[in-house]
Design a protein that fits this description.
Strand content: under 5%
CATH class: Mainly Alpha
CATH architecture: Alpha/alpha barrel
Oligomer: single chain
Distance between the termini: 58 Å
Helix content: over 70%
Largest sheet: none
Length: 321
């Protein structure tokens, strides 16, 4: 007779049972995170994502701009005024129509580039680098949208500060006086502000949504998306206020040579007005971008969900299930 062996039933072992539960929990969490950060494993439809991003981004941008334009006007006038000058509160909607004509394609381009880029990068990067994917997609989206955003911003801010009375006149006169380059005044300072702004805001927003979804084990509703968007926008707006002040001063100076570039602008402001001048308009900016983030992301996610529900494949998959 051979040696006596002791057989232990794995199912009856407390340690084995505990290990099994921990493995299941870890696997479930990973699946949950993967489905949240990358979406369910479906074929990557670039043109569908691009199209839906254009529609959702354009809708969100127009709604935000229309609702919060007066706050943006006050912020611009606060930043543009020198020393102890007074802020004019008339014509707070000056330039809105022309600005929407630029905001619509700019927002559409941004989200249209951001969404497919984000989803492609999330499939390429490991889970622990999802923030890098969001940062990169946000910066690339901002870079693409800047080709439309900058001329729109130049015209808008010149009208907000009373230099022109209509968008067509502003475009015509800026081009005649300053050349085509005048429509891209402050372009480098705009990129200096907007690329980090877009990258940081969307990264904070996406990472908070991922964490919330993992914790709640469900999709977010519109109010929850709006609250997270407000939080991400307010923080990012406060951090990037000095960059916004520099961008505003360079854009509104026109053909004048008060500032010869970004570094000269910073040095001149600090020397003549003190370092605190770099935080001019921080209150309206944080309020504007905080509320704007709430509206933008709420409308964005709602529109994306609406478009997704109208996909023919979505309806067909739902029937099969």
């Amino acid at each position: 007779m051979g040696p006596l062996t002791l057989a232990i039933d794995a199912k009856s072992s407390p340690q084995a049972s505990t290990d099994k539960r921990m493995q299941n929990l870890t696997l479930e969490t990973r699946k949950s995170f993967a489905s949240i950060s990358m979406g369910e494993e479906k074929p990557f439809d670039f043109f569908r994502i691009l199209f839906e991003g254009f529609i959702a981004g354009g809708a969100a941008g127009v709604v935000v701009e229309t609702a919060l334009y007066p706050i943006d006007t006050i912020k611009t006038r606060l930043q543009a005024v020198h020393g102890g000058g007074k802020i004019v509160l008339k014509g707070l909607y000056s330039g809105l129509a022309g600005n929407i004509a630029g905001v619509l394609p700019a927002s559409a381009i941004f989200v249209g580039v951001y969404e497919p880029t984000k989803q492609k990068l999330l499939k390429m990067f490991p889970e622990n680098l999802s923030a890098v994917a969001h940062l990169t997609a946000g910066a690339l989206g901002g870079l693409a949208a800047s080709l439309v955003r900058v001329p729109t911003e130049v015209v808008k801010q010149r009208m907000q500060t009373g230099q022109f009375t209509s968008a067509p006149d502003a475009v015509r006169l800026i081009a005649s006086r300053e050349g085509f380059r005048g429509l891209y005044a402050g372009y480098r300072s705009f990129l200096l502000r907007d690329l980090p702004f877009d990258a940081i805001q969307f990264c904070i927003y996406e990472q908070l949504r991922i964490g919330y979804k993992v914790a709640a084990r469900r999709d977010l509703n519109d109010p929850e998306n709006a609250i997270i968007g407000a939080f991400a926008g307010a923080i990012t707006g406060a951090i990037t206020t000095p960059l916004d002040v520099i961008k505003t001063r360079l854009m509104v100076q026109g053909s004048g040579t008060q500032y010869r570039g970004i570094s000269d602008c910073v040095q001149t402001i600090v020397r003549e007005e003190g370092p605190r001048a770099l935080l001019k308009g921080i209150g309206p900016r944080v309020l504007w971008i905080g509320i704007g983030g709430s509206i933008f992301f709420g409308v964005l996610e709602g529109t994306k969900r609406f478009l997704e529900q109208r996909r023919p494949t979505h309806r067909q998959d739902s029937k099969e299930k």
